[in-house]
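Protein modeling request. Please complete all fields; requests missing the sequence field cannot be processed.
Requester role: graduate student
Desired output: 3D structure, token encoding
Chains: 1
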Amino acid sequence: MAERIKVKKQKTTVQKYRVWRNWNIGLTAAKFAAPAVPFGIVLGLNWNDWVGNSPSEGWSIGIGFGMLIIATLSAVIGIWKKDELVKSKVSGLLYVTIIFLVIGFGFKLLASIMNEMGNMFLYVACGLAGSFGIDQVDKTFIVPEAARFKALIEKNGLSKSSAKRMDDEEQAAKEGEKAKQERIDSL
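Delivered output (187 residues):
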């Protein structure tokens, strides 16, 4: 009896592009979620101190919790509105992380309440460092591969839009040749 050889089915160019595009989308979402990880950890550790639930007082929220919310929201807005300082090789999140580290250490040196705020900024800076790593991987590896496969799809007419564009170009070329021939014949 003849041996059967298993042949691995190779992915199409469109499937490869979708994989890279999905990685890009996932890493973009993770970039925004990374500052929330330290937020969740610190909130869990300080829940009893920050969120009081006594029957006589009702709900109360500590100043540390408020500062943590402000620091985390500042980080997410910083990611969202980041400037492209070094567009080609380095993620702009590196600069946002450095700013948070400087502010965090500065607050730690000022006073007791600023020490608490400094802790919050340092926690968020750790999350931003994670965002920086995620964004750098996305920018360095994922986006160029997705762009390469998208260019292949466009060049070879593998999507509906690129196939229609190629058909339109072919039709225009035929019409141009026909018009050229009619001009030559009319002379």
